[in-house]
Design brief:
Elements lengths: L1 E4 L1 H10 L3 H9 L4 E5 H11 L3 H14 L3 E3 L7 H12 L3 E2 L3 H10 L3 E4 L5 E4 L4
Parallel strand pairs: 1-2, 1-4, 2-3, 4-5
Antiparallel strand pairs: 5-6
Helix pairs in contact: 1-4, 3-4, 3-5
């Protein structure tokens, strides 16, 4: 299964130090291919320049994200807008742990995959 991935997922992986991709693959029963809009990589690059904990996590998250396939998007798009536009264009679900983005995805009828606070995957499939 192909999934478009938000920076929040990579930051969570960096923070917890757990391979949530393997958890998702076990839960879904199939291989997962991660795709990242260029705007998400740009967002992580920007965050990685910060000092402190978030900057350190973003640097690790950027390394994780660089292993995923890149999806081009319009340069002026924010990471969230690029994810939503790419999800519509490619007809793919979005993997995120960002509650605000999840609400926006639901509002647009875009399928999403997220993790509960305990790390259990949750698939949200809304009709398009």
């Amino acid at each position: 299964m192909k999934l478009l991935v938000d920076s929040s997922f990579f930051i969570l992986c960096a923070d917890v130090g757990r391979d949530f991709v393997a958890v998702l693959e076990d839960y879904l029963g199939e291989c997962v291919e991660l795709l990242v809009p260029q705007a998400v990589l740009d967002e992580l690059r920007s965050l990685s320049g910060r000092r402190g904990r978030l900057g350190r996590l973003a640097r690790v998250a950027l390394k994780l994200a660089s292993q995923a396939g890149v999806v081009e998007n319009e340069p002026s798009k924010s990471a969230d807008d690029a994810l939503m536009e790419s999800a519509r264009r490619l007809n793919l679900p979005v993997l995120t742990v960002d509650r605000k983005l999840l609400q926006a995805l639901r509002g647009e009828g875009i399928p999403a995959v997220t993790l509960s606070k305990t790390g259990r995957p949750r698939v949200i499939l809304e009709p398009r």
